[in-house]
Amino acid sequence: MSNKSIISTENAPAAIGPYSQAVKAGDTVYLSGQIPLDPATMEMVTESFEAQAVRVFENLKAVAEAAGGSLNDCVKLTILLTDLGNFAAVNEIMSRYFTAPYPARAAYAVKALPKGADVEVEGVMYLG
């Protein structure tokens, strides 16, 4: 695909596996899942669930901006939580980063996430 490009920024954590921070295909950007890694240190944020979720959305925001858009260009998010008891908290934190109309979204409880994270979020942006 000739209109495919890899998005990378130092303002978000480097990939910890064989994947890109994001891939742009035409006007669509696929944002890889972000966990609460501090991009400067590559250490996990662990103070609280809120601190983890804020770091995740900050990481997503940095990748979205590196792709030439913003979080409000997201059309779909997937949120992975190790404890659905944090569902209300993630909703409140997400509302700090998005304005209506909100993207489509799914949230799932999972047994575990990389590096012991409590939350991971991935997204799809449309820049057309």
TrEMBL record:
One of its GO terms (molecular function) is deaminase activity. InterPro entries: RidA, RutC-like_sf, YjgF/YER057c/UK114. It holds the Pfam family Ribonuc_L-PSP. One of its GO terms (cellular component) is cytosol. SUPFAM superfamilies: YjgF-like. Signal peptide: none annotated. Belongs to the RutC family. NCBIfam families: Rid family detoxifying hydrolase. This is RidA family protein. It comes from Nitrincola tibetensis.
